[in-house]
Amino acid sequence: MELNEDDIILLEEIAYTKLGTKKEYTKTYQDKDLGLLIRSITGLDMQSAKEVFSEFLDGSLNTQQTQFILMIVEYIVKNGLMESAAVLIEENPFKTAEHRQYFQRSYRCNTTDKI
């Protein structure tokens, strides 16, 4: 289920008045969008994440490439988002030499940017 504008307004009201103040929120989370914070805490629906990556999961990739994309999807489902492509070389399960080399050789530059 997708959040609409009214949902966001209600969540902001709760966060900024019932749980604390906007100033406290900003001090703690800087400029982090409330929606991104919530997704990073709760994760994301697997189907929604797969839909975002449907262009890559349409059958045009080989098995290893598809597995790599599914690893990215699983990471996003668990963490709510991937803030930076640096995650693909700095964090588990991506930081192993095998995955890092595979990622670098498997995708053309424009595809890497899309991912």
UniProtKB/TrEMBL annotation:
GO annotation terms (biological process): DNA modification
Any GO MF annotation of the entry: catalytic activity
Domain of life the protein comes from: Bacteria
InterPro entries registered for this protein in UniProt: EcoEI_R_C_dom, LisH
Any coiled-coil regions, as ranges: none
Record domain EcoEI R protein C-terminal: where: 2-99
Name of the protein in its database record: EcoEI R protein C-terminal domain-containing protein
Taxonomic placement: Bacteria, Pseudomonadati, Pseudomonadota, Gammaproteobacteria, Aeromonadales
